[in-house]
Structure formats: structure tokens, C-alpha cells
Amino acid sequence: MAIVEITVIPVGTDDTGLSGYVADMQRILEREGGSIRYQLTPMSTLIEGELSDLLAVVRRLHESPFSAGAGRVCTTIKIDDRRDRPSSMEQKMRSVAERLGGKSE
């Protein structure tokens, strides 16, 4: 299981606001159903699943702003693909919380 952090920034739009583009990308993720899990954050989106599925979704997310009229799109991705043992977004957060003495938000 891999975790991808993705930030998609449309360039060449008439508005500095990005929430409409972000909402369009969240709809793409919702349509993926059970093959992936995702979490929107204030600065990016985290996606969890099989790497081949995630890379296909990354492409759809990157293409989304073009469909909405953006003239240019800059996408940044980070991939955490751990294969020595199971990993998940929740497991990573639990691990840090345990090191903080069980305190979590």
C-alpha cells in the first residue's frame, strides 16, 4: 500500500481562488470508490491505495484543471511506498502519537 501527497495548482486562470478546482478534484476522488482512500488537507490531498491505482488517479487530478479552463497546471507529488510492512495514513499518525506518550488530536 502506498500513500501519495498531491498538490495541483492551476495557473493562467481569471481568479486567485482555487476552491472550485479543489472541489472538482475531490469529486474525482469520490468516484474512485473503494480502490483508494483520501484525505483533504489545507495545502494538499493525501491518497492511499495500490501504487498503480494512485498513479492513474494522479493523472486524472492533474488533468482536471485543464478541463475547467486552466491554461497551465503545476502538480507536485510525493510517494511513500513502504513494502517491508503494512502502512497506512492512520498507522503513521498512531506511531507519532505513541512517541508523544499517547497524546493525539
UniProtKB/TrEMBL annotation:
Residues annotated as domain Thiamine-binding protein: 4-96
Region annotation (Disordered) ranges: 80-105
Superkingdom of source: Bacteria
GO cellular component terms, A-Z: cytosol
Family matches, as InterPro entries: MTH1187/YkoF-like, Thiamine_BP, UPF0045_domain
Pfam families according to UniProt: Thiamine_BP
Family in the record: Belongs to the UPF0045 family.
PANTHER family to which the protein is assigned, alphabetical: UPF0045 PROTEIN ECM15
Full protein name: Thiamine-binding protein domain-containing protein
Top-level taxonomy: Bacteria, Bacillati, Bacillota, Bacilli, Bacillales
